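Posting here for the record, re: XIL.
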Amino acid sequence: MSDRRQYRDARSVYRLGRSTFAVLLVATMVAACSGSSSPRSSSAPAEHRATATLRQLADRRHLLIGSAVADRPLRTEADYRRVLGREFNLVEPEDAMKWSTVHPARDTYDFTAGDRLVQFAEQHGMKVRGHNLVWEKFNPAWLTSLTPSRTEAIALLRDHITAVVSHYRGKIAQWDVVNEALAEGDRGSMRDGVWLRWIGPEYVPMAFRFAHDADPGAQLFYNDYDWRSPGPKTDHILELAQHIRDSGAPIDGIGLQLHVLHSLNVAAERSKLRAIANAGFDVAMTEVDNRRKLPAVTAALGDQARKFGDLLGMCLAIPRCRTFNLWGFTDRHSWIPGAFPGFGAGTIMDKGLRPKPAFFALRRALLSR
Ligand code: XIL
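Prediction output follows.
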């Protein structure tokens, strides 16, 4: 894939010139900002008073900044929709495009929730990341209870990917084609599951070929978690991406989920990001959050802010990293309390959609050079 093709989409989105931006910034700083998330205390530091949105600052840096979106609040909460459209230029369906949602029975596809999000994005001039086409989790029982031959399994995979990607052809900027194909631990082995058992490891490059055939214009990512430098998974993620490419399948980039738990070694992690870029892949930070033990104290939120700011700073330092996506933007709707009982407070806004220190850390990262 040529560099020109890889950067084309991102560049074509951003039309703001320097002067347009200056006008915009001044205008937003003087405009009265509606909504509870407007930080205007006169004793607040300067960057707290500025009301430029993350989205405006990100446009200026040619960055896609986004969030996972849950379908229910998108349907029912006006303040959720308002903040989403105001602060971000990218959305990603939290569950709406996964197998269980979009392909609930063998002969039934249901694009209702996915279409709703794509329509929201179109109305608000936002890009969409599709998530995801193959994962060993979140699969419907009708699928996992089958006992197909290898040939039949390949046909199932091809038909699903072709149906979903074709439905959204031209509307999805980036797809997470394969999610979390690597197992836990440090051996670099593949995660066990139906696709591995039915098809073998080749299901991974196959999925990329099927996706590319259905929408040659979409950027295709391999997405995984437990990115930590030093850390064994880091190398295995890059090796798998190289294997996909070496087998002739079209892959544009690596998505790093970044549900961060560990402390960040900024220098080491930045050099690992550079290694991905130098190997010819784009990098997307795809599911950024930072869960805390509840109740989260002030110090924890300060540490969280540092992490968000450091991650965005690392991304901005690397020209091939131009996607920064949060896994939810408000503690009102986050997968964390459900998945990790006793934990929460992992996003940049509280349940009232008021910005937390992490929000301001993102803003500072976007403002700094
Ligand atoms: C999670 C969603 O947030 C939940 O709503 C759902 O119940 C389970 O999946 N890695 C991923 C995401 O790639 O798809 C997961 O999302 C979180 C971990």
